[in-house]
Design brief:
Layout (H helix, E strand, L loop, with lengths): L6 E7 L3 E9 L5 E9 L2 H13 L4 E5 L5 H8 L4 E5 L1 H6 L10 H9 L11 H33 L4 H4 L10 H8 L12 H4 L6 H31 L4 H8 L6 H7 L1
Parallel strand pairs: 1-4, 4-5
Antiparallel strand pairs: 1-2, 2-3
Helix pairs in contact: 1-2, 5-9, 7-9, 10-11
Length: 260
Amino acid sequence: MEVVYERCAGLDVHKESTTACVLWALPKGKKKQEKRRFATFTQDLLAMADWLRDSGVTHGAIESTGVYWKPVWNILEGQFEILLVNAQHIKAVPGRQTDQKDSARIADLLQHGLLRGSFVPPTPVRELRDLTRYRVALAQECNRIANRVQKVLEDANIKLASVDTDSLGAPGRAVPDAIIQDVQGAVARKRAELRPALEGRVTEHHRFLLNQLMTHLRFTEERMDDVEKEIARRMQPYREDVERLCSIPGVERVTAWGLL
């Protein structure tokens, strides 16, 4: 096979250690390799980068193992030409299959140009992805808390969801808040059809749970609001793109962020 890179490195990344293999191409089809194992603390990864640079490495490949590749990538990016390789792609390449995560095999495949790198976006885009994904997680947590609130209300035979589709919107929240404060008829006066739905059997246990859940819900919503403000700030360079996407029917600001 044709040698594409005279001197390259393969990195086998794990949670607590990274094994790096430097591979040299020698005359007459021979090759030389050297392996070293490093811990995953920052100082150890920096030492690994120094060793690779001193060894004359210009190109390297990392197998995308969970999230453990990210700190390694962050340190090596900009110093070397690095490929992030999908583990399934390495398995699909013919050859020795005894240890698919072996750094020497990764280096050998890279040296002969048999690896295809995955797209790794620039740092600002990666950070925006982290924020948008965190926002999704917070939104999902809000939904889970809201479902728990509904279960407590149902346990107390408060049928709010039966008469109000947005039972935890701004008006609907007055019900659990009133129950927490033990305010009789605070919301029932708003609409006559709510009165039967609110004639439940509320105990101190229900009030305690509702108080905990509503506090948790408001805290999570505040965190989501903070994250949205940070995303909006970082999206300023893409403001025109967001506006164009929002002109599409059904596409709102949050959806546009995810698309970008």
